[in-house]
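Hypothesis: this fold can be encoded by more than one sequence.
Test: take the structure tokens below, design a sequence, compare later.
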């Protein structure tokens, strides 16, 4: 997202990460902050390594291992602020639109929005291990568009 924003400074650019993914790449906020690159990052925070947990649930008989990230740590708002970014937390779906509007109105530094979502929220589409993209698994609401994926 940082590169996309640098390449298209006239556009609003959002990156959407899970909370586990964000913890692996958040150090890039320092660069965005130092360079005043006003990218927006939305964290879908279900307090789990969501894709890993989903695989363990769907393919390994719900034998969960090391996927719970803790409901309170890290505090993504404080983390963002410690790197010179704006941090916003969304606890309720009713707050989402206002938070997005606020994030979109800030154009002098990066913004991180911590969207708290249900723990059991799934990530689709997904490709099972060892399979091709032809074997993609979709959410039931996406099935009507399956033909467009080939």
């Amino acid at each position: 997202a940082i590169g996309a924003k640098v390449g298209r400074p006239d556009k609003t650019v959002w990156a959407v990460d899970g909370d586990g993914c964000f913890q692996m790449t958040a150090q890039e906020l320092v660069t965005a902050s130092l360079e005043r690159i006003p990218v927006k990052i939305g964290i879908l925070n279900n307090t789990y390594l969501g894709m890993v947990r989903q695989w363990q649930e769907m393919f390994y008989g719900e034998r969960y291992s090391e996927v719970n990230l803790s409901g309170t740590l890290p505090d993504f708002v404080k983390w963002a602020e410690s790197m010179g970014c704006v941090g916003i937390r969304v606890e309720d779906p009713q707050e989402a639109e206002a938070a997005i509007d606020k994030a979109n109105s800030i154009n002098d530094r990066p913004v991180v929005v911590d969207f708290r979502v249900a723990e059991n929220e799934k990530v689709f589409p997904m490709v099972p291990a060892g399979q091709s993209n032809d074997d993609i698994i979709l959410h039931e609401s996406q099935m009507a568009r399956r033909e467009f994926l080939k």
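The first helix runs from residue 2 to 7. The chain has a mean pLDDT of 87.
Hypothesis status: open.
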